[in-house]
Design a protein that fits this description.
The protein is mostly helical. The protein is built from seven helices and two strands; from the N terminus they run αβαααααβα. The chain is elongated. The termini are far apart.
Length: 180
């Protein structure tokens, strides 16, 4: 059986157009970048935002280091004039954030084990914040980065993991009927 004549030009036409498109795609369209131009300059606004973030997070760390951890494992935030946890007051159980400030205070005073007993996610969040401060100051001072998206590619998954750990720890507290 021989192929129909009408099919041969169609196949040839498709192949030649594919070939031409492929050739166009393989043609280099970008210029070679000098190694010193690998970095992206940050705008003045971006630099100010990074500076303000660094200052705000450094202040949080300084305040937490100044606080005396509450021996009960939660309630350290009351030293700042904040009210008691509403969830504890109404339901008698700790919320996912209970012990967060206390865990920061323990961690920054060098007692990570006590911090983990108060709130595991709090210790992780404190360490992440401590690592973020010099990065933000460096970005603000240098004014350049290798890629604008690296911060979100790193910080978002880490923060999601910390939130999931906080929720898991809270569910374990609920399951064990750990009242205040």
């Amino acid at each position: 059986m021989q192929p129909q004549d009408s099919m041969i030009p169609t196949v040839a036409t498709k192949w030649s157009s594919f070939s031409c498109e492929r050739h166009k795609m393989d043609t280099p369209t970008t210029q070679t970048v000098h190694p010193r131009q690998r970095y992206i300059r940050l705008t003045r606004t971006e630099r100010i935002v990074f500076l303000l973030l660094g200052v705000a997070l450094a202040m949080l760390l300084a305040i937490a280091a100044w606080l005396n951890p509450d021996p009960s494992g939660h309630g350290t935030h009351r030293q700042l004039g904040l009210p008691s946890c509403t969830m504890v007051a109404f339901f008698g159980i700790r919320c996912p954030g209970c012990g967060m400030t206390t865990s920061w205070a323990h961690t920054l005073n060098g007692d990570i084990q006590s911090g983990l007993r108060c709130n595991t996610a709090g210790v992780l969040f404190c360490l992440f914040t401590g690592a973020s401060v010099p990065c933000f100051f460096l970005l603000a001072i240098r004014g350049k980065t290798s890629n604008r998206n690296w911060i979100s590619r790193v910080s978002v998954p880490v923060l999601i993991l910390i939130v999931l750990i906080s929720i898991a720890e809270w569910l374990i507290r609920l399951a064990s009927n750990a009242s205040v």
